[in-house]
């Protein structure tokens, strides 16, 4: 017994190596003679006892029966586990959605939002902040004037 | 063996059908047993290995892809099993006189009407088989494994090189040297 493509492969390999033709023939002859020697013993080699084969078949059957019995049990355990995992994941997603940070609003966000805009320049941003500061200063001045007016009345 | 039938049986094994495993055991069991017997040199080891292989096959067969030749794949699994067993044990089983009682304990592989042998012929035959086992035992471990895997598993030189992680020329040289040495040892015994 030898590989189906035994000699073909052997020839191919030896051709690739550019082995001297005499040497190549010698290698092939010696390998074939070795194969023939092993083949001659195969005709009368010992085979497995029928009891051994029967024992192996019993083990295979027992193993297959165990696996078959295990499958519904696994399903019984895995189904509730999968359902529980799905509920936990859904709850976590709802929680993330509820606690998501609210988007920035109003004046405080304006400079930042404007800064993100590709159109606005640094200078324009500076003017915006200056205007905001001016508004605040005006408020303070107005408030002081109001308090003074109340006080003087 | 018809390839369509083999592919069908493998698919049935992959589905866990007992009869398909029985078929595989019948088809490949004798070759595998002979391989294990020659590799381990022990009848007990060969029996254990054959059982272990089929138990392993129950799980491994799902990994088999039909692009490889099944017999080659099966024997590579078998070779790994042998390697693991002797690595765990720390040494290779001594090559024993395994064939001296095979006529009593086993059935011969040859099919058809086996010739009835006289006691003297039986003795001569078992002596020859013993000599072969001893000659195999004298080969370096890897050389013996390569020769037996090629002989029983039908692995090509390329597959042997892959399996043993050696260059192609080394695989070929190992087969060549091993077989040559085997013949020399057997002819020395005859003289």
Explain how this protein is built.
- The complex is a heterodimer of chains A (153) and B (191).
- Chain A has helices at 6-16, 21-42, 50-98, 106-116, 122-152.
- Chain A is mainly alpha-helical and 153 residues long.
- The termini of chain A are far apart.
- By secondary structure, chain B is mainly alpha-helical.
- Helix content of chain B is 73%, strand content 0%.
- Residues 99-108 of chain B have low confidence and may be disordered.
- Chain B contains 9 helices and no strands.
Share in helix of chain A: over 70%
Which stretches of chain B are low in confidence, meaning pLDDT under 50 for 5 or more residues running? 99-108
Largest interface: A-B, 40 and 51 residues
Mass-distribution shape of chain B:
globular
| Unreliable residue runs of chain A | none
Main beta sheet of chain A: none
How does the overall form of chain A come out from the CA principal axes? elongated
Number of strands of chain A: 0
From the structure provided, what is the oligomeric state, counting identical versus distinct chains? heterodimer
- List how many beta strands of chain B DSSP finds: 0
Write the layout of secondary structure elements.
The complex is a heterodimer of chains A (153) and B (191).
Chain A: H1 6-16, H2 21-42, H3 50-98, H4 106-116, H5 122-152
Chain B: H1 3-14, H2 18-40, H3 43-60, H4 70-89, H5 102-105, H6 119-137, H7 141-153, H8 157-164, H9 168-190
Summarize the model shown.
The complex is a heterodimer of chains A (153) and B (191). In chain A, 81% of the residues lie in helices and 0% in strands. By secondary structure, chain A is mainly alpha-helical.
Features:
heterodimer, A: 153 residues, mainly alpha, 5 helices, B: mainly alpha
